[in-house]
Amino acid sequence: MVLDGGLSNALEDRGHDLSDALWSARLLKDAPAEIAAVHRAYFEAGAMVATTASYQASVAGFAQAGVPIAEAEQLITSSVRIAREVRDEFGGGRLVAASVGPYGAFLADGSEYRGRYGVTASALRDFHGPRLELLIGAGPDLLAVETIPDIDEAEVLVQLLQELDFPAWLSYSAADGQTRAGQLLADAFALAAIDQVVAVGINCCAPEEVAPAIALATKPTVVYPNSGETWDAGTRSWTGSSETLADLAPAWAAAGATYIGGCCRVGPAGVRALADAISDA
Predict the structure, then answer these.
(1) 169: pLDDT confidence band, cut at 50, 70 and 90?
(2) Where does Zn(2+) bind (predicted)?
(3) Would the pLDDT of 280 be above 90?
(4) What are the pLDDT digits (tens) for 48-58?
(5) pLDDT value at position 236?
């Protein structure tokens, strides 16, 4: 199944400045129609899954921006409503995956690429639990628990998924066969043994990380790497050159990947090429 691409880069391409701490979640308040337009563009490009604009959306994050709690909760649930409304325009078995980004995304300091935040499991549970309940209550088809940098945070999220009994994919940010915090990816994937995790994999990583990750997965596999460029958290800019995921995706599908898409710097054109390549293969 073909996933969508990066939400933030598609919004930036439409002229939006996402440099504040709320990132793309700010547009849930300021320009929700633009988020709907990006979901629509990805479906038109061949994506079968819309990933909601909730990656960086949390009550705590909105509160820091001066948004009252009740409004923050409404904005988080609106991310699912927006995606569902666009999905319903298309139908045809398309899905809405409610994005659950890591705690490090709320910190907005690049720590989602490092993990080991120095907070307790209880603090992580207090952060993630209410947001999961809000997203599930809005009626997505599944959760996209994504860009998780370490096993410590994954353990908390897996326990919550089990308690809430809701389907999700669990996707880590990874490098060199390890989580970003340096734990073996095989050990991280082992946490996905619960029934609620319907797929496990990696995202927001270099394309060359994908094939080894597929080989390690013991469940249906979800992979959506970046374009090949590298994010520099210090300068808040992308460096390096991009690759064409469409050239690589057929081999990933042949190796057993079930869900394939793009993450940062992969836009509707890249998803269209990826979808066409998989279809041709």
Answers:
(1) very high
(2) 204, 263-264
(3) no
(4) 999 999 999 99
(5) 58
Residue whose token pair is 């990826």: 274
**What one-character DSSP code corresponds to residue 113?**
G
Q: Which residues are annotated as a binding site?
A: 204, 263-264
Q: Is 228 helix (H, G, I), strand (E, B) or coil?
A: coil
Phi then psi for residue 110, to 5 deg, are 85, 0
**Contact predicate 18/248, CB 8 Å:** no
pLDDT tens for each residue of 149-167: 999 999 999 999 999 999 9
Give the residue ranges of the annotated binding site for Zn(2+): 204, 263-264
Q: E-assigned strands of 130-216?
A: 142-148, 168-172, 174-175, 178-179, 197-203
pTM given for the model:
0.94
* Residue pointed to by tokens 């959760």: 143
- E-strand ranges in the chain read 49-51, 95-100, 142-148, 168-172, 174-175, 178-179, 197-203, 221-224, 230-232, 237-239, 257-260
Q: Which CATH class is domain 7-280?
A: alpha beta
> Could you tell me whether strands 230-232 and 237-239 are parallel, antiparallel, or unpaired per DSSP bridges?
antiparallel
Helix (H) or strand (E) holding 154: helix 151-164
DSSP annotation of 52 reads P
Q: Is the pLDDT of residue 281 over 70?
A: yes
Q: How far is 226 from 156, CA to CA, in rounded Å? A: 26
Would you kindly state where each structural domain of the chain is located, as residue ranges?
A: 7-280
SS3 267: coil
Phi then psi for residue 149, to 5 deg, are -90, -15
Q: Per residue in 94-130, pLDDT tens?
A: 999 999 999 999 998 888 889 999 999 999 999 999 9
Local confidence band at 66 (pLDDT 50, 70, 90 cut-offs): very high
